[in-house]
Design a protein that fits this description.
Elements: E1 4-17, E2 21-35, E3 38-44, H1 45-50, E4 59-68, E5 70-76, H2 90-103, H3 108-124, E6 127-133, H4 138-150, E7 154-158, E8 160-161, H5 174-188, E9 194-200, H6 208-220, E10 225-230, H7 234-243, H8 250-255, E11 264-268, H9 274-282, E12 286-289, H10 291-296, E13 312-314, H11 326-339, H12 346-360, E14 378-381, H13 387-390, H14 399-409, E15 415-420, E16 423-427
Parallel strand pairs: 1-4, 5-6, 6-7, 7-9, 8-9, 9-10, 10-11, 11-12, 12-13
Antiparallel strand pairs: 1-2, 2-3, 4-14, 14-15, 15-16
C-alpha cells in the first residue's frame, strides 16, 4: 500500500472553460493528499476534517501556497550558460555564442555533468515538465533523459538534426542522424515519463534530404512529437527563402514534409503571414510564445491575440531567453502583450504556464492541475518573499492582484519546494 502524505496550504490551479475562459480553482485553506506518486485528494480543510481526517497528519505550510509545477514547452538545455550573452541578433548570436556552447558537449563527461546541473536548476525554478532541445551529440540526449529518469521527471527531448550551415563539429549527415535518432527513440520514447521529439533545429540547418528522413521517422514512429523554430527573425526568413526557393513560404518547408500536427510545437512564429497562420492553426500545431528571447534578441513582438488557446503555449527559450523561471517568463509575456494591445490576466498567464502548456504537450490528463489521479508534480510558493509581495493583501478578495504581484516580482527565490511524482526534489523544511 502506498504511503500517503498530506500538506495544508492555500491551493490554486487553473483551467480553461469553453464559455467562461480561464478560471482559477482556489481553496484558501486546503489539504493536498498524495498516494505514492499521484495526487489522492484536493479538498478544503473543513471537508478533510468532516471526513474524519487527522489534521496532525498534515504538514502545515501556511501561508505558502501550493500550485502545479510549471511546464516549459521550448528551451535549449545546452545554452543555459550563455544566457545574457551581449550584443547580437539571432543568426549572429547562433554563430558567436550558441554553436560554440554546443560544441563543448562533444565531451560526454561534460554533457553528463551539465545535464545534472541543468535539471537541478530547472527544478529549483519550479519547472517539473519540459520540452527541450539537446545537441547533435546523441550522448547529450541520453544524459538529459537519464538525469530526468533519476527524478521521475516528465521530459520531452530530442537530438538536434543539423546537416548544413553550422560548424562541422555539429553537423550530422542525414542518414547517420536518422539512424541515431531511431536508436534514441527506441531507447527513451515512452520509457517511464520520457517522450521523444524529432528536433530539426530550423529550416536553415536542415537540407531537404534530412527533412525527408525526418518525415520518414515520423511515419515510422507516429507517437513521437516534433519541435522546431518558425519565423523568429526577418533575416532568418530571408535565408529560408533563399535556401528553399520552391517553398511558397517558411511554413511550407515543414508542411511539405508532413511535420505539422497536434504533436508539433513551433517556437516563435512572430512573422507569419495570414495564410501561414491559418494553415498552422488548422493543423492543430502549437505555438511556443518565447517573450524573453524575442525581446533579448530583438526578434519582434508576437501578437498573442491572434492565437487560439488550443494552439498556444509559453516558453522560456533559454538561452536566448534570460531566465529559467516561468514566473519571470510570464512577466515578460505580460509586457509584450501590453505592447500589442492585449492584456493577459494573471490567471491566463499562470494557466498558460501550467495547464495550458500541459495541453500543448498532450499531457492535460497527467499534469498541470491539482487533481486527483494526476502526477504529484507541484511547487510550494512563498508569496511574501519580496517586499512588494509582502505589502499585498493576500485575502481571497485580492488574490487576483496578489498573483499578478507574484508574477511581476517573483522568481526562483519564491520557490520553497519542488515535488516530482510525490518526491521532494528541491528545497526542504521552512
Amino acid at each position: 500500500m502506498s504511503a500517503i502524505s498530506r500538506f495544508r496550504a492555500r491551493l490554486i490551479s487553473f483551467e480553461l472553460d469553453a464559455s467562461d475562459g480561464v478560471q482559477m480553482v482556489h481553496i484558501e485553506d486546503g489539504v493536498l493528499s498524495l498516494s505514492g506518486s499521484k495526487i489522492a485528494g484536493v479538498q478544503s480543510t473543513a471537508e478533510y476534517l468532516g471526513q474524519g481526517g487527522d489534521i496532525e497528519a498534515c504538514e502545515d505550510l501556511r501561508p505558502a501556497l501550493i500550485m502545479p509545477g510549471f511546464i516549459d514547452t521550448h528551451l535549449h538545455a545546452p545554452q543555459y550558460r550563455i544566457m545574457g550573452a551581449f550584443g547580437t541578433r539571432l543568426l549572429d548570436w547562433l554563430e558567436k555564442y550558441a554553436f560554440p556552447a554546443e560544441l563543448a558537449f562533444a565531451d560526454a563527461e561534460y554533457a553528463a555533468a551539465e545535464a545534472e546541473h541543468f535539471v537541478n536548476t530547472m527544478l529549483a525554478n519550479g519547472t517539473t515538465s519540459s520540452q527541450l532541445f539537446t545537441t547533435t551529440h546523441a550522448h547529450t540526449c541520453d544524459a538529459l533523459f537519464a538525469a530526468a529518469a533519476k527524478r521521475n521527471l516528465c521530459l520531452i527531448a530530442g537530438k538536434l538534426m543539423m546537416d548544413q550551415n553550422a560548424p562541422s563539429g555539429l553537423l550530422s549527415a542525414a542518414e547517420v542522424c536518422a539512424r541515431e535518432t531511431q536508436t534514441l527513440i527506441d531507447r527513451w520514447h515512452h520509457r517511464g515519463r520520457a517522450a521523444y521529439a524529432l528536433t530539426p533545429r530550423f529550416a536553415i540547418t536542415s537540407s531537404e534530404r534530412q527533412l525527408d528522413y525526418c518525415r520518414g521517422l515520423r511515419q515510422a514512429n507516429p507517437t513521437v512529437l516534433v519541435q522546431t523554430h518558425l519565423s523568429e527573425n526577418p533575416e532568418e526568413l530571408a535565408e529560408v527563402s533563399r535556401l528553399f526557393p520552391g517553398a511558397k513560404d517558411y511554413l511550407d518547408v515543414y508542411e511539405s514534409y508532413n511535420l505539422l500536427g497536434p504533436s508539433s510545437t513551433f517556437a516563435h512564429c512572430i512573422h507569419l503571414s495570414d495564410g501561414e497562420r491559418s494553415r498552422l492553426f488548422d493543423s492543430q500545431s502549437k505555438v511556443a510564445f518565447c517573450p524573453s528571447s524575442n525581446l533579448f534578441l530583438g526578434s519582434g513582438l508576437l501578437d498573442v491575440a491572434e492565437i487560439p488557446w488550443d494552439n498556444f503555449s509559453v516558453a522560456s527559450d533559454v538561452g536566448g531567453g534570460t531566465s529559467l523561471s516561468m514566473l519571470t517568463t510570464c512577466a515578460e509575456a505580460y509586457k509584450v502583450c501590453q505592447l500589442k494591445n492585449r492584456t493577459l490576466h494573471p490567471y491566463e498567464l499562470l494557466y498558460a504556464a501550467t495547464a495550458g502548456n500541459a495541453k500543448a504537450l498532450s499531457l492535460e490528463q497527467e499534469v498541470g492541475q491539482l487533481k486527483e489521479g494526476f502526477w504529484a508534480d507541484f511547487i510550494v510558493v512563498d508569496a511574501e518573499h519580496d517586499i512588494a509581495l509582502r505589502k499585498t493583501n493576500w485575502g481571497l478578495e485580492h488574490l487576483e492582484g496578489a498573483l499578478f504581484s507574484l508574477i511581476m516580482f517573483g522568481g526562483r527565490q519564491n520557490i520553497l519546494r519542488t515535488y516530482v511524482a510525490g518526491e521532494l526534489v528541491h528545497g526542504g523544511a521552512s
